[in-house]
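Predict the 3D structure for this chain.
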Amino acid sequence: MEWTQLLTPQRLGKTHIENRDMERTPFLKDYDRLVYSVPFRRLKDKTQVFPLVKTEDIRTRLGHSLEVSCVGRSLGRIVGEQIIQRHRLREYSGADFGDILSAACLAHDIGNPPFGHAGEDAIRQGFNDWYAGFHPPDGGGYLSSGEKTDLALFEGNAQGFRILARLENGGRPGGMQLTCPCLAAFAKYPRESEIGQDIIGHYQGRSVQKYGFFQGEKDLFAVVAETVGLIRRHPDAAWWARHPLAFLLEAADDICYSIVDIEDGFRMGYVSYAKAKELLGTIAGVKIDGTTKEETIKRLRAKAINRLVGEIAEIFLDLESEILAARFDHALIGYSSHKEVFKTIESVTKSSVFLHPNVVRIKIAGYEILGGLFNDFANALFSDGKKAQLLICMLSPQYRPLPGDSSYDRLLKLTDYISSLTDFQATRLFQQLRGICL
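Done. Predicted structure below.
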């Protein structure tokens, strides 16, 4: 892969490359478009770790996305300056790298449904349970193998690409029409959902459980991949090597959720002050005693993130040639000198935070809510009954089935709708449909 092509400002859905205005570059415009979008604003009421949290001190998806964007921007600028010198990229600046990553990081969770990763699981389970008893009226409405896999393994990452590349801005070509480098950096998993075991057997890199786009957007991602020059992993599968900046996006996300989960866990009372101080202090490499426990943890969190940003930038630069040749496909955080601390953080947050009864209870409710909504609306999509007609009327026009829609199209519109809901909206709707509240 070549940086000059990897950084092309070509927009998806546009036939020409816009003029580069150094005051407001195409990559900076990507960031602005995302900030002003409705799907991004909805993240303020979507779960990061703690569902339906009642305090403003704890992060939602919106706060997390903004923090990841800040870390991504720093990583991009540090790395970008060095890449420009190495490859003599006179048309670009370190700020361009930072702006691409800042925008891609801002969007990295834009496709997540309510209730976080539990929401993804709930949609998968809801589909699998419903499809097991599905009998289309005309007998010809079954899903293809790839379409079924899309929904059986529903991914917020693929939903995010669908939002960015198709759904936003009234479905015009290219959707939000972001630059191809931004969309490629956004794609942590540049592959379709269904890849044969014979193909997987030839691949020794990261897990192929996750994927980055639905069958409905496979052609759109192929355009992105071709435009920026991603290397294809296999001729018989829609599967590409990552854009190099996707590694930095993943690292920014890893840094933020690992470090911040400890801070939020402490604020919620699930992680002790001593344990939080020990873990963050080990990474920060300094001793800090603030005027309060909260102040101490906050300052250690900041120092830890700053130290990790510098380390990850160095790791990326050391591996640059391997990444460009698609010979490297692992998480950069796994090469950190603090990787053992990260393992401890993962263990602590899993036992003390993610499996805390208060968190688990809400997650279980999320399964019931999203699974119930999927079943109600999916049944309505393939029925002519009066209740079904009323349920369809509840959907906004863009989510309603059209006469020519296939079963797959109808179900994708349903997952579009469910994914668009906030935690509160989904809960309220479920209660209304069950007659619990009106």
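The chain has a mean pLDDT of 89.
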